Amino acid sequence: MPVIESRLHAASESFQAHRAGMLALLAEVRSHEARSAAASNASAERFARRGQLLPRERLALLLDTGAPFLPLASLAGLGHDNQDLGKSVPGGGLIAGIGRVAGVRCMVSASDSGIDAGALQPMGLDKQLRMQEIALENKLPYVQLVESAGANLMQYRVQDFVRGGGIFRNLARLSAAGLPVVTVTHGSSTAGGAYQTGLSDYIVMVRDRTRAFLAGPPLLKAATGEIATEEELGGAVMHTHISGLGDYLAEDDRDAIRIARSILGGIDWTRDEAPRKFAPPLYEADELLGIMPGDGRRPVDMREVIARIADGSEFLEFSEHYGSATVCGHMRLEGHAVGVITNNGPIDSDGANKATHFIQACCQSRTPIVYLQNITGYMVGRAHEEAGIIKHGAKMIQAVTSATVPQITLHCGASYGAGNYGMCGRGFGPRFCFSWPNARTAVMGGEQAAQTMAIVMEAGMARKGSVDREKIDAMQRQIVERFDRQMSVFTTSALLLDDGVIDPRDTRAVLAEVLSVCRDADARMPQPMQFSVARP
Questions:
Q1: How far is the C-alpha of 120 from the C-alpha of 128, rounded, in Å?
Q2: Residue 258 parent element (H or E)
Q3: What is the pLDDT of residue 222?
Q4: Between the CA atoms of 79, 85, 91 and 92, what dihedral angle is there, to the nearest 10 degrees?
Q5: Which of 36, 58, 151, 149 is nearest to 108 (CA)?
Q6: Per-residue pLDDT tens digits for 49-104
């Protein structure tokens, strides 16, 4: 394949300014993540007194040492518990990601029980549902480390109660699809949450710590008058010896993790294949920090991004001179054949037709597609309307919707208007969707929205005979502030509109990991069943 010849000047003032801006945003992402870990680890003394491990200690023991782990949705709920982002604790009360357990690639979910006893935080429900969706679509075993006080009753919303049933439905679907569900119940698993344990194929319980019951002692006494201790009602010994809910009795957290690893190690499941041979990019990943300008209106040659993630910086561009603002082509990434679609400007009719053709060709050859979004939208104007931009854009959206290969989306910069849709935004169900810290998502830019509304407002005032310019200016400032706040990655990622914010320097590693997940999923043939595995 042809090699991309970079024209990036890393010593230039603009590059250094872009790099500094990206590093500042990345530091903000890391500070929010660190705040969650610190809030959980503040419970260390209490956990130690109970002879328990902290959630992140459990996760570290569960995962294979030195194997890659891809954390997901770490900013979920940011700002929803506290509007002051500097005091918000994101994560949704859940630590989740894709990692290896005894050589088996799994979706791993752990209750962050160091915070509010593991109660789900804002957006925690959506995060858990998304993790289960990823596991189902990519045929991953599901391992959950459960210790949760359940729903946060102080923030009770009836819609969350109703939608929460989807967690239990998905556990049944995972089992029925032939994907093992392994649960370690480290502590409380009560009321409806007891089914999070009960709907598992393999259940490990911890002596003197596990509690699983539909009604705890206070509610039991109030409802029926019966008096029972927590251990009698739902302890690990009772469930492993009498009820049959538990399969394995562990002596402590470490023993429980050992058993869980043994379960995964004992099933006949495909392990990672031998690494493929590939050449690294010719340019340093560190240079990805300085490519994207802080001002999204400035043009960027996205081939500079491709040059720093493609094997050998090789890229075979497809129909280069037709619809040239829409860049399509083939590359390899750690040996994986990949189709790439990205943007060097708005999508015009030719670009939409080219992308449609390219998507269909990738489906024909079973080549996954990576969308590198930096899109201000589809072209507008009389000439473009006459050229059929709506129908050609619709064809592209139909191709994205109906594609039969894995599609992975990375928000590298702007993602505005219908461009978000045509470039496989979250609403179009990409297998995975990640963002760089500078990413911006909105129906349009804030200034554009403000100017549009100002024209409308001014025309309305003129019809009434008086134009209040001060009122129009105030309205414009309000719109710009609202758009700027909502388009920020700290808002969109908090709302689970992506699967996580990544360091641009990690782009190649993250894409290689999820491409491997997709490839293995498409090749794997689990043993589906009519029903999920039922308890004895």
A1: 9
A2: helix 253-266
A3: 85
A4: -30
A5: 58
A6: 999 999 999 999 999 999 999 999 999 999 999 999 999 999 999 999 999 999 99
Structure tokens at 107: 């979706």
- 103, amino acid identity: G
Q: Give me the helices (H) in 86-153, please.
A: 124-137
**Tokens read off for 334:** 């750690």
The number of CA neighbours under 13 Å toward the Cβ of 64 is 19
The residue length of the chain stands at 536
Residue found by looking up tokens 């357990």 in the block: 101
Distance in angstroms (rounded) separating the CA atoms of residues 264 and 99: 12
DSSP of 307-362: HTTSGGGB-EESSTTSSTTEEEEEEEETTEEEEEEEESS-B-HHHHHHHHHHHHHH
**Rounded to an integer, what distance in angstroms lies between the CA atom of residue 174 and that of residue 136?**
6
Average pLDDT over the chain, rounded to whole? 93
Helix axes 253-266, 55-62, angle to 10 degrees: 30
Q: H helices then E strands: how many in the chain?
A: 20, 15
Residues in contact with 224: Cβ distance below 8 Å, sequence separation at least 6, in sequence order: none
Instruction: Report which of 528, 533, 529, 517 is spatially closest to residue 270, judged by C-alpha positions.
Output: 517
The verdict on pTM exceeding 0.90 is yes
